[in-house]
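Researcher: Last one for today. Full complex below.
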Amino acid sequence: MSAPHPIPLKERRLSNGLRLITVVDRTTPTATVNIWYHVGSKDERVGRTGFAHLFEHLMFQGSANVSKAEHLSLIESVGGSANATTWLDRTNYFATVPAEWVELILWMEADRLGTLLEALDQANLDNQRDVVKNEKRSSYDNQPYGTAYLELLALAYPKGHPYHHPTIGSMEDLDAASLEDVRNFFATWYAPNNAVLTVVGDIDEAEIVAAVERHFGGIAANPALPSHPDLTISTPLGGEIRKTVKDKVPDPRIHLAYRAPILSSPDLPALEIACQILAGGRGSRLTRRLVRQEQLAQDVGLSVLPFVDGASLVVGSATLRPGADATRLETLFLEELRGLGERGPTAVEMERARALIESEELALRSDPETIADQIGMYATLLSDPERINRDLAIYQGVDAAAVQRVAQQYLADDRVILWYEPVEAP
Amino acid sequence: MSAARPGPGSGRAYRFPRAIEGETANGVRIIVLPMPARPLASVQLVLPTGASAEPRERSGITTALARLLPEGGEHHDADGLVEASELLGAKIGAEAGWESLVVGATLPAGRLAGILPLIAEIAIGPRLPEREIERVKALRLAAIDQVQASPRARASEALVAAIYDEGAAYSRPAGGTRESVSAIDRTALHAWHQQLLSAGRPTIVIAGELDPAAAIRAVQESPLAALTRGSGKAHAPADTSSPISSERGGAPHLLLLDRPGSVQSELRIGRLGRSRLDPLFHAALVHSEVLGGLFGSRLNRVLREEKGYTYGAAAGFEFRRGRGPFTARTAVESSVTAAALVEARRQLGSLATDPATEEELTAARQYLRGTFPLRFGTASAVAGAVTALVANDLAVDELDKFQSSVESVPAAAVAQVAEELSTERERIVVVGDAASIEAPLRDAGFAVEVRSEPVKGES
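Model: Here's the assembly. Have a good evening.
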């Protein structure tokens, strides 16, 4: 099987510091516009958690030339779709439209980056604060096991560390957010020199460059862009941290977390392959042992949450089968992780993992939205957009010894063990 | 920065991949959809009978069978099968739908010939090991408990149970009930599998960057050629039970499922919807976008962007071969439950009295037209869409006309959809903290029936 063609990306920088990356991809007559701002919940102040995400909502509430809530309606009415997400390290905004409408999207992104504060008012802030509080209730507070990831972050990173608090924030802090906070946050972080704009699709590159110059060129850089907070933390947790949460859940579930190497580390791809061998699909070690052979678990999972600095996380979970022994589930789960470190993967496991990675690489190339987002990620967090074209070789270069070594090093006894248990005895 | 909004530049038209057909010596249909620059291909074998054809006491058996097919066949056990498929870079699996059982895989197009024997092996002669049958049943029973614990899933299941008559397949979850799943055994699974193989005409759908003639030949020369064209009836009669009601006036009935301490209420409002085969299908899509599909739909605009009651509100038809449900859904903070429900019903009823404006219709038509190609970036999405056409007995070129069909939906057709929907019986389900929301709901004029929380293991 020959390697897939490299993605032909072109990068340039406007005089105000905005990085622009274009990829011509004519497989469908659409265009994707994706913009990453290097600001996330790690950049929030004490007492203002949840703010980066609340702010993301306000970016859809209008600017000088776009009225309240018009942003998404306008995109839908030309036949496109759009959304945005906020995470610990970054915030991204993305839209895909029929290719003939790409300049409208560039104009709208520029309008909100250049003039958001002209449209901002207390009513919009209050409305979106209510929406976000309902998002927190819907996605976390009112879901069985819904608070697990909030708990894991708080346990895996010490109080005061920028990754300790979750992106969704706390109700108290959301209530405390003021218009003044919004203005300061915008003025500090939403600047062209803190953004990467990626355009992928059935586009004319010269036209895109001209349109971006036309709409973004006049937006001033922030010469005083602050540095991000210090994320330094030791990779081993320094012991085992245990917690049990009583919740409205039908069956007990175990969650695990390990501190892991950061996004730029050469150990990370090996650890991702370790997770694939342990929990990726029906033939993985944990599924075979815990779900099929021992019949202790309803499901298992193990994956990497990559972060830019300090330490990433490996998170895992397994839901206990009704009537099964929770202690035994925990013991065997940990035994499988230890087993990969002690004996390493088999040759066939490595070959299967490589073949699946190759398929995933082909899948990525079928999706302009994912191409744009990965480029935005690598450009923003690693200053290396071309990394997308080296990924396959990097993963294919991981050998069995590397998988064994990272499993031994990172999936060891320093960990968070978090159990969810039913409130009443079943 | 310019205040002038850029208009459209030049763009190209989108074409749904053109289907090229063939068949095996036994008359099994082969449909290939060539897609340049899509090296990750998708293969799907469609057996055109699904959960809607299950007798009540066998509810969930198609889903159980789908879970059990990958547990091995004539040449491979479960581990051997997953190993053989992963070495091809393939994920192989089976999925049950209301109208079909689909066995399929995604993999690099060049390895197509390698996966066909594995698909044939589990589709034609699955092992159905006793031990795995018991495991799959136990996991389904545990999943039923998980559904009851999830306010979202519990509300949705209770709503469809309220819309349809008890005897209708659509009144039940496709995965089956506690009672029906407990009764499944190897004999029943084997018999159901034989029935699926012998009912109707199997179809093999392949999409991706491949030569259609070569792909057709690969199927013809594979063990899939052993499949035969069935003589039995493929489908149960379309399920359109739940009589149209002439109920007017009186307090609207509301089923309140208690979830003590819930910080939100899950709201569901539903009626009997329309079939995928309905001539007003495209009009119904436009109708749903205006009402509860678009971000700027009436429901979301008011409940989220004006009132801040919710993170989001949506409504729409679920299209099946028979008449699937029409549902509206949102989750709101407990203290605004009654107000949000009154407002949601006002918006849902608004299209009958306050027809869609030209601006709303244009936005909905353009959205459906423009986002159509976005749905088909991958070979598996294209194969899946054609699989759905096949399962519903629709022509394979039906999607070629999708964009022009939605573009030309007239206002009168949307109004007709709204009018006909309004004549169906309305059902309302709320999952929330009865102690705090029952009285406000009664005060708002609802006839509230409270049901307490199910005990685990009984529901």
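The CA atoms of residues 247 and 417 of chain B lie 19 Å apart. Chain B touches chain A through 83 residues (CB under 8 Å).
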